[in-house]
Amino acid sequence: MSKIRAGNLVIRAGVDKLAFEVEGSATNCAIVHHKELPALIDFLNSYVDFQANRRTGFRINLHQLKEQDYRRLEMWVEIAGKRVQVEPLNLSITGVFIESEQFNGQQGANVLVTLGFDGESVTLPSRVVRQDISLTHTAFHFHGVFSDGRLDPPPQLETIFRALQALWLDNNMNSAWSNSELR
């Protein structure tokens, strides 16, 4: 029987089950049969995605852009063949948080997120990692933005993100590099 250890938790693999034991206590043991593993794996993947979405980078509060700049950004989410336009609230290089009354997806759902800005667009396979109780605010984690553990977003996403980041900085920072001071 193979095993893995995480802190004081020992997970032992049997032929058709996993045993979860808290080291030092024989009474604290749980058995998960192979038929129950898909639900456990979905739960663990959801947890990993949620953790991956926890502020791994700078987030642009898109409502802090000038209105004319914000209106240049478009976003759609496609799930089960249905595509809806949504309102992005904040964007990072690893995910996006939206508001929408029309989006109908559940936590853990795989979707396609399309971002468009000034003629540049990118479609990203994504996962729903968080929703509020009213189901009108949803967070997505972009798949494929890491390669071998390093941040490696698609070039189109990086172009859109950097352009929005520059506009956000220009609008929110009183700095020597803002357009108004360069003129």
What can be said about this structure in brief?
The protein is α+β, with helices and mostly antiparallel strands. It is 23% helix and 40% strand.
Description of the molecule:
The structure is a single chain. With 183 residues, this protein is an alpha+beta fold. The chain has two domains: 2-52, no CATH class; 60-182, Beta Barrel (Thrombin, subunit H). The protein has helices at residues 37-52, 67-70, 155-172, 179-182, and strands at residues 2-6, 9-13, 17-22, 29-33, 60-61, 73-79, 82-85, 87-91, 95-99, 110-117, 120-131, 137-142, 146-147, 150-151. The strands form three sheets. It has an eight-stranded antiparallel sheet with strand order 5-8-9-12-11-10-6-7. Strands 1-2-3-4 form a four-stranded antiparallel sheet, with no helix packed on it. The longest helix is centred in the C-terminal third of the chain and has 18 residues, at 155-172. It starts with a strand and ends with a helix.
How are the strands of the biggest sheet laid out side by side?
A: 5-8-9-12-11-10-6-7
What's the CATH C level of the largest domain?
Answer: Mainly Beta
Rg over CA atoms, rounded to whole Å, is 21 Å
How many structural domains? 2
> Would you identify the CATH architecture of the largest domain?
Beta Barrel
CATH domain fold name of the largest domain:
Thrombin, subunit H
Give a short account of the largest sheet: 8 strands, antiparallel
Give the structural class.
Answer: alpha+beta
Head-to-tail CA distance between termini: 71 Å
SSE arrangement, N to C: EEEEHEHEEEEEEEEEHH
Would you tell me the overall average pLDDT? 83
Number of distinct beta strands: 14
The portion of residues assigned to helices is 10-25%
- The number of helices is 4
> DSSP strand (E) fraction?
35-45%
Shape: elongated
> Low-confidence parts, pLDDT < 50 over ≥5 residues?
174-183
